[in-house]
Each structure stands twice: as C-alpha cells, then as structure tokens.
Give the backbone structure.
Amino acid sequence: DVSFQVLFQGRPLRSADVVATYVGFKPDGAWCYATSTDAEGRAVVRPSQAGTWILRVKTVRPAAADHREEYDVVSYTATLALEVLP
C-alpha cells in the first residue's frame, strides 16, 4: 500500500477523489483505482502490479466574487508519478 496526504494551500484536502492507474493499463485514459481522502487529507492506494503509476487529485472551488462574471469555478489538479517495484 502507498499512503500519502494531500494538502491544498497548506491544509489537508478532505473528501477529495483520488484516481490512479499504471502505464500500460487499457483502455487508454481510464483509471484502474479510485479512493478518496479522509478528514486529514490522507489516502491509501493499493497498486495491483509493479510499474509506473500515475495518481491524480482534483478539487474545484468557487471563483472569487470579483471574477464570477468571467467564470464560476476554479479547478486545481495535482498528479504524482511513482515507480512500484516488484
């Protein structure tokens, strides 16, 4: 298992969706693992095989009041690539 904590602006990101896949998983563009962060921003991913894994976390926040005429939300995405050894 790979345990990690997700921070957003220095604070734990709660209830965030975390998706993961390994390079070579088919179909392309699909994710083979999904979980979410707990109240402290912690999550665990259990890689099913060795190889290069990509993890993604995304959060969406309302736009600042002075920008709402231009856009409604701001989206932030973080990715992590790591090698899982056999």
Summary: The radius of gyration is 15 Å. The mean pLDDT is 96.
